[in-house]
Write a structure and sequence with these properties.
Layout (H helix, E strand, L loop, with lengths): L9 H12 L5 E2 L3 E2 L5 E2 L3 E3 L4 E6 L17 H24 L3 E6 L4 H15 L42
Parallel strand pairs: 5-6
Antiparallel strand pairs: 1-4, 2-3, 4-5
């Protein structure tokens, strides 16, 4: 199971690239130390707005639509997958008790829908995108200043650093 990525999966990368293109800045795989010693690592974290985004794989988190039940070594996989779902629920409740908003997305959700879900959660949390900053009054015009004289040219390099020409 070494080859199974914990972070930077294809669906997560696609979502992060789309959010970054829209001007959102975030932390990835950021460890949150919650009260009670619980540690949670959401895939994408907006720390200022306390929004945690998880992109869950259909197999690992037992998606009701696409999650498959392994037939081999069922004695191992069934408790593991059930434990993953229980851990997800425990993490969600811990984050919510700490004042965080949690968004869980399945890997099969199209990127456009995932971005819309995250953006709506950010908007509900009061985030402002860099792509559309709030209107600010323009600063008052400054009186024009007289032109500054240009600096004198720097002297050439000292002779000891000059390059010698070969003849």
């Amino acid at each position: 199971m070494k080859a199974n990525r914990r972070t930077d999966t294809k669906p997560e990368l696609a979502l992060r690239h789309a959010l970054h293109r829209l001007g959102y800045r975030y932390r990835k795989d950021y460890r949150l130390d919650l009260d009670g010693g619980r540690r949670v690592r959401p895939d994408i974290v907006f720390t200022a707005r306390k929004l945690a985004v998880f992109v869950d794989g259909c197999f690992w988190h037992a998606c009701p639509e696409h999650g498959s039940k392994p037939k081999n070594n069922e004695w191992y996989w069934s408790p593991k997958l059930v434990g993953n779902v229980e851990r997800d629920q425990l993490n969600d409740t811990s984050l919510k008790l700490a004042g965080w908003t949690v968004v869980r997305l399945w890997e099969h959700v199209p990127v456009d829908e995932a971005v819309a879900t995250v953006v709506s959660a950010l908007t509900a949390a009061g985030a402002v995108t860099k792509a559309s900053p709030p209107a600010q009054p323009s600063p008052p015009a400054q009186p024009s200043r007289p032109a500054q004289p240009t600096r004198p040219a720097q002297p050439s390099r000292p002779a000891r650093f000059a390059r010698r020409r070969r003849t």
